[in-house]
Design a protein that fits this description.
binds zinc ion
Length: about 350
């Protein structure tokens, strides 16, 4: 049987359905797994996403995009392909795309995480014949601690800095990571300040029913109170004039890459918190096994290592070359350059 999904110059293409999944060049019909900049781009004719992701996509791509929201698990048919979206546990509104055509099922994962958290619907394994998996942290060295232990570490660090009269600054991606950290902060320690890149997204999360502690903009806080504050800011704010107002501060970076000592040194921060919105190695393996798919196609990340490993355990594995990036490291959406 011919492959249901192939790579074209515009992006991953569902052949019988005649639509794209997270295309990197403008197309007529795009199914979007989630609103990170490398997966959700401007300029497509029609967008389809999980219903819970519509607000985020509009806030990032423009209120006037043509977008349909599909509830998780609901089915629609497009050119004979039955499409449904299933929770990916990555960020608010993230979905895996299930495509069924003439009895054959393919699932494209987008980005996913298997550990549940408070900011999005938990990952749901979907049985399929072919599973297209990401591999951002597809090396056996990547193993995450439970998120509560990371939140405990962040709160302890913040409490200590506050007691010593020093502001705490955490650099984290504005969409997803920032809200995940917020969900674990203890607001009794001090004020929680959010950079202007993250605050509009906090609003969409709250409107979507996600409980986050109260946050303020830096202009709303007395200078003296900043000494006990925690600040969530995008990595691009590091070294910018915006940072000057915090005086003597301790800083940290929150990312799965912080598991690597060298990555923290390159960031030049005081602390690294190993917190990722992607599956770690055991998580990837668990998720792949749960699909029961005999065939696995690996995208962005550690493609050769994962492919070799999956072949060793008897799966028909190969890779797809894509233009998806690394949402753990950088801000990519231009709308987030604003520094308010
Ligand atoms: Zn992502
Ligand atoms: Zn990705």
């Amino acid at each position: 049987m011919a492959d249901m999904v192939v790579v074209r110059k515009e992006g991953l293409y569902c052949v019988p359905g005649n639509f794209y999944i997270d295309p990197w060049r403008p197309v007529d019909r795009a199914v979007i797994t989630h609103a990170h900049g490398d997966h959700a781009r401007m300029g497509h004719g029609h967008y389809l996403s999980a219903a819970s992701g519509v607000g985020i996509l509009k806030s990032r791509l423009g209120q006037d995009i043509h977008i349909d929201g599909l509830e998780y698990g609901a089915r629609i048919e497009h050119n004979g392909v039955t499409i449904s979206l299933h929770p990916a546990g990555h960020v608010l509104g993230s979905a895996q795309v299930r495509m069924e055509h003439k009895g054959e099922v393919w699932v494209a994962s987008g980005d996913y995480k298997v550990e549940p958290d408070r900011t999005c619907v938990p990952f749901e394994p979907v049985k399929c014949d072919t599973f297209i998996t990401e591999s951002t942290f597809g090396l056996p060295i990547y193993r995450w601690d439970p998120e509560q232990s990371i939140f405990d570490d962040i709160n302890a660090w913040w409490r200590k800095n506050a007691a010593e009269g020093r502001c705490s600054v955490v650099f984290a991606y504005s969409f997803g990571k920032a809200q995940r950290i917020l969900s674990g902060l203890d607001p009794s320690i001090g004020p929680i300040v959010c950079h202007g890149a993250a605050e509009p997204l906090n609003r969409v999360y709250r409107e979507g029913g996600v409980a986050l502690p109260p946050t303020v903009m830096v202009t709303d806080v007395e200078k003296a109170a900043l000494k006990s504050a925690i600040v969530i800011a995008p990595p691009s704010a590091a070294g910018s004039p915006w940072m000057k107002r915090f005086g003597d501060y301790s800083d940290a970076f929150a990312s799965g890459w912080m598991q690597l000592r060298g990555a923290r040194r390159r960031r030049g921060v005081d602390r690294g918190f190993v917190l990722s919105d992607h599956a770690d190695w055991p998580g990837l393996m668990t998720a792949i096994r749960a699909t029961e798919a005999p065939r696995v196609i690996v995208t962005h990340g550690s493609i050769p290592v994962m492919v070799r490993w999956l072949r060793q355990v008897g799966l028909d594995a190969s890779g797809f070359d894509t233009e998806y990036g690394d949402d753990e490291a950088e801000e990519k959406a231009p709308a987030e350059a604003a520094n308010a």
